[in-house]
Amino acid sequence: MKREHVAINELTEGVIWKQLLIFFFPILLGTFFQQLYNTADTVIVGQFVGKEALAAVGATSQPIQLLVGFFVGLSSGATVIISQFYGAKNQQDTGKAIHTAVALSLIGGLLFMGIGLGFSGPLLRAMKTPADCYDSALLYIRIYFLGMIPTFLYNMGTGILRALGDSKSPMYILIACCIVNILLDLLFVPVLEMGIFGAALATVLSQLISAVLVMVEMVRKKSLFSFRFRDLSLTPRLLKRILMIGFPAGLQSATYSISNLIVQSSVNSFGTDMVAAWAAFAKMDAIFWMISGAFGIAITTFVGQNFGAKKYDRIKKSVRISLGMEASAAVFVSFLFFFGGTAILRIFTNDDGVLACGSQLIHLLTPFYITFICVEIFSGAIRGVGEALYPMLVTVFGVCLLRIAWLLLILPLHHTIGMVAACYPITWSTTSIIFLIYYLRGNWLKRGIASS
C-alpha cells in the first residue's frame, strides 16, 4: 500500500530567523547532550580513577575524531542531497537516497572498525602518548572502535532526519542515550571498579542503543520517506552524488583531525599535567564548538531545502542572519569562559597542577572564538548548494596546512604551550577571510545552480 506523504518540516517557508532558531535549538540541545555523553567518561574517569586515566581518554580523542569525523563529513553528502530532493518535492529520489545512505553507513562502519583496531597502537605511539597512560589509552580506543557500526548508523540516521527538517527526534534519542551512558559509567567505574575498560564499554553500549533508536524512528515514520529494510540498497547515481559532496567534506574533517593530532603530539611533549589539562579544557571548549556546529548543520540544511526550492534570495538572507546569531553566541561564550573557566575545570579534576595548566589554556584560546564564525557559516552554506570542493580546499589550506606549518616551523623556535595555542586563532582568522572573499564573489551559488 502506498503511504501518504507527510511533511516533517519544510524550511522553505516562514520567517527566516524563526525557522532557523526552531531548527537550531533542538540540534544545539541534542549536541549538548552528545557532548555530555562524551564528557561523562572524562569526568568519571578523572574523579574516580586518576589523572593518568584522564590523560589516556584525552590522548584518544583525536584518533577517534579522525575516523568518526571523516564519516560524519561523508554523511553530510547524504544530508545535502536528501534536503535538496525534499525541498524540490522529489519523493522518489528522496526515498532512494535515504536507503543508499543507510547502506553506506553499514559498509563504512565495518571498514572503519577494522582500520581503527589495526592502526590505533601505531597512531598512539606516533603521537608520543606518555608512557604512564599509553596502555590505558590503547585499551580505551580499541573498545571504542568496536562500536563503529552503531556509531556510523546513528550519525547517518540523524543526518537523514535533519535533512527532512526533523531536528527533534535526534535530540530526544541523544538525551535518552546520554542518561544511559552516565548511569553505565557510574555503575562500571566507581561501583564495579572496572576502570577505563568500564568507561569505554559504557560508551559503546550507549552508542548501540542510540543506533537502534534512530533506526526505529526512521522505520516508525509513516510517510514515503520512512526507512524500509527490504529497500536497503546502493543506488549508483545517488551514491556518486553523495560521495561527490561528502568525500571532500570527509577529507576536510580528516585533515582537520590530522592537524589536531599534530597539536596533540605537541601538547604531549609538555607532560601528563598538560595532557590532562588539554583533555579537560577540550571538553569545556566543546561547548562553543557544539554551538558553532549546530549553526553549521542548520544553515546547511536550510540552504539545501531552499536551493532545491530555487529560493536563492532566502539563502542569502539566512547566511547573514546566521552570522549575526553565531557572532553573538561566540562573544557570550568567550566572556563566560575567560572569567569563569577555571571553576568549570574543577568538574573534571582537583589536581592543582592540571588546574594551573588548564587556566593557562583558557586565557590563551577562549577570547578568539569569534574569528572562526565565518568558517562555519560560509562553508555550511556553500556545501548546502552542493559545492563541496572549495570549502574543503580552503579549510585544508587555511586551517590544516597552515597549522601544521606553524607547529613544524615556528614552534621549535619557541617551545611553549602559548606557541602551540597560537596556531588556532591564526588559522581561524586566515580561513575566515578567505571564505568571506569567496562568498562575496558569488561563484559558489552560480556553480551550484549550473550543476543542479
Please provide a written account of the structure.
It is a single chain. The protein is mainly α. It has one domain (16-451). 83% of the residues lie in helices and 0% in strands. It is globular and about 55 Å long. It starts with 15 loop residues before the first helix and ends with a helix. 56% of the residues are buried. The model is unreliable at 1-7 (pLDDT under 50).
Labels describing this entry:
mainly alpha, globular, disordered N terminus, 452 residues
Number of domains: 1
β-strand number: 0
- Biggest beta sheet summary: none
Bin the helical content. Answer: over 70%
Q: How much of the residues is beta strand, in percent?
A: under 5%
The end-to-end distance, rounded to whole angstroms, is 32 Å
What is the fold's blueprint, element by element?
Layout: H1 16-48, H2 51-87, H3 91-126, H4 131-145, H5 148-163, H6 168-191, H7 195-220, H8 236-268, H9 272-308, H10 312-345, H11 352-365, H12 373-384, H13 389-410, H14 417-441, H15 443-451
Helix pairs in contact: 1-2, 1-6, 1-7, 1-9, 2-3, 2-4, 2-5, 2-8, 2-9, 3-4, 3-5, 3-8, 4-7, 5-7, 6-7, 8-13, 9-10, 9-11, 9-12, 10-11, 10-12, 11-14, 12-13, 12-14, 13-14
